Amino acid sequence: GCPDKRPVGRLARDDAAQPVTVNAAILDGVAGTYLAPGIGLVTFARDGDALTMTSSSGRAGPLVALNDSTFRLNNDFSFRLRPGTGTGSDTAEPYAALLMAGRGTVVLNAAAPAPDDLNLEAYTGRYFSEELETFYDVVMQEDMLTIQHRRLTRPLRPVAADVFSGTWPLSEIDFERDAGGEVVGFTAADGRSFGIRFERVE
User: Fold this and answer.
1) What is the DSSP annotation of 22-83?
2) How far apart are CA 24 and CA 10, in angstroms?
3) pLDDT tens-digit profile of 34-53?
4) Nearest CA-CA partner of 29 in 113, 77, 86
5) Does the N-terminal peptide bond of residue 83 adopt cis geometry, omega within 30 degrees of 0?
């Protein structure tokens, strides 16, 4: 989870900000994979004296360090990263905040490991989106959960309870259950649109 959920505020836009070199230990402290609500998995990795970023929605590239905790991607998005201290359960995990103009701050929690006893069969079925006027099928292929649309098949990776990360066209899928625990639908994001609703029809 996120050890510090205090608002970090918005990053003031400064296109003239000069890149700086950040200590390798700081970069190692924030490297890892995070789950961003509505965006999917975001991975930061150290490449020499810099960080690179890749996301399950397809966005990727090198990050420019503006200071020890603020990194920018192609002038589009900025990330405020804090390494874990390794001391105490509330501060041991690194965390990140994604700062985007017009959307405020989105906290990225460290991605949770997939439960060993996850019942993937419970998610299989046919789903329909009124908004998109289309069907998606969630099916098992060997031991992997996948989502299918027409001729397209994409694997789904469990990252938290009822939350899966995918690749284009859906970067994150958040399944919903009824009072009896049955999966009845999901909301999805594609990296640009959020909260796309699908109802289970089969």
Assistant:
1) --HHHHHHH-EEEEETTTEEEEEEEETTEEEEEETTS-EEEEEESSSSEEEETTTEEEEEE-
2) 25
3) 877 666 778 889 999 889 98
4) 86
5) no
Q: Which single residue is written with the structure tokens 């004296």?
A: 49
Instruction: Provide the 3-class DSSP secondary structure of residue 123.
Output: helix
Tell me: pLDDT of 187 over 80. yes
Would you put residue 92 in left (φ > 0), alpha (ψ -120 to 50) or beta? alpha
State the DSSP code for 118. -
Q: What does DSSP say about strands 183-189 and 196-200: parallel, antiparallel, or unpaired?
A: antiparallel
User: In angstroms, rounded to a whole number, what is the distance separating the alpha carbons of residues 85 and 71?
Assistant: 19
Listed as own residue / partner, the contacts of 162-167 with beta carbons closer than 8 Å and 24 or more positions apart are: 163/35, 164/123, 165/35, 165/40, 165/41, 165/56, 165/111, 166/40, 166/56, 167/56, 167/57, 167/58
Query: What does the alpha-carbon distance between residue 114 and residue 139 come to, in Å, rounded to a whole number?
Result: 18
What φ, ψ does residue 154 adopt, rounded to 5°? -130, 140
The token pair at 37 is 């609500």
